[in-house]
Amino acid sequence: MRQNRPLQLALASMAIYAAGAQLLSFALPWYVMKSTESLAPMALIWGVQTFAIGLSGIGLGWVADRYPAARVGLGAIVVQGIAIMVIMRGLQFPDPSVIGLAAWSGVWAAASSLYGLMTDFKIVPRLARSESELTWANGLFGSLWSGSAIAGPALGGALVVLMPDGAALWIVLGTLALMLPWLSVIRDVSSTSKNQGERQDAEPTKRPVGRTLWLAIILLGIAAALANIGTGSLSTVTTYYLGHTLNLPGPTVGALFAVGAVAQVIASLGGPLVYQRWGAQGTRFLYTIFGIIALVVLIRVGSWWAGLGFAATEVAVSGFNLVSRTVRQQWVPSPLRGWAAGVYRTIAVLPAPLSAVVLLSADHHWGYESVLLLAAVAFGLNWILASRGIYVLSGQTLRADLRRSVEPPCKEL
């Protein structure tokens, strides 16, 4: 990977893009809250963005497969830029339209999702020269995204004070402008006649097709939905539990969530090593068992340490994301990668907002420990469905992966 400069450029562009996206995700709700002095508009913006990503997933995946990657990337960047400028203009008014801001934030979220689909499933698999490079690229991207989840809100917190009335969003526009030179690299990659994805597609007998392929994608999508339910709802309930029930100060709550992001960075960096040693199924098994055990132990510990349960779930999610992305990049045929990723994203994202109601109700009736227990159950079901999806997609099994980790490799004669 050290000799693969295009792949290094891809990771660098992802880091810049992720920083801008995380900055926007913090700054826009903050500006709206300050303008309206209400929490409801913030919830509306989050809900619109979530449903925009989910509902548009299948269509955006088709676009990523149908048109050249450089053209798709340019269109996604232009649409995001237009949406951000409209949002900035809307924030200039004394009484901004919350509906309008939410709608344009949904447009931005859908375009951002398209750019991510194009990069993750049309470009990175072509740039990676081996399974090892692909796994390391996914692990590094996971750590970069988690790192931006720490740096983005921290930077955004300072910028929204120094740059009021939406001015901090100029920084996000700047990150989009930095993506334009990267499009020339994408154009060169797309025009290459022989690349990793095409070499793999030359062996169709090793790839699932038809109902088998879509069964695997649906199983992995449901598993991802369970992971999102576990982390998204747990983070909401944890914030309420720590800040309201235990009356902890804001910096302490923020520090606990930063611990979760740091845990995900470490887990993402270590993921490729685990993957190479234990395989796809072994990696999923080890990461999920760690998350479930940690959550169950925290039920007994109680007190504010229960907030560290969020860090445990982040470890489990990082293992799932690494394995799910890698096996889909490897085993889904190149002409269908975008569409498959769109279907996967739709299934994974749409149930998340509804799950918050369920776990908030559980917290109200049975306490925070019940939320931790339900999150542990969600991750257990996530592992079962993901394991089946991985087996259907690639034929890999947990027994075979664990066996290969303890048996010495056979020497070639």
Write a compact overview of the structure shown.
By secondary structure, the chain is mainly α. It is built from 15 helices and no strands. It has two domains: 1-202, MFS general substrate transporter like domains (Growth Hormone, Chain: A, Up-down Bundle); 203-403, MFS general substrate transporter like domains (Growth Hormone, Chain: A, Up-down Bundle), CATH 1.20.1250.20.
Tags for this entry?
413 residues, Growth Hormone, Chain: A, 2 domains, 15 helices
Shape: globular
- From N to C, what is the helix and strand string? HHHHHHHHHHHHHHH
Cα end-to-end separation: 28 Å
* Helix/strand class: mainly alpha
Write down how many β-strands occur, each being a DSSP E stretch of 2 or more residues. 0
What does this molecule look like?
The protein folds into two domains: 1-202, Up-down Bundle (Growth Hormone, Chain: A); 203-403, MFS general substrate transporter like domains (Growth Hormone, Chain: A, Up-down Bundle). 84% of the residues lie in helices and 0% in strands. It has 15 helices and no strands. Helix 11 packs parallel to helix 14. It is globular and about 65 Å long.
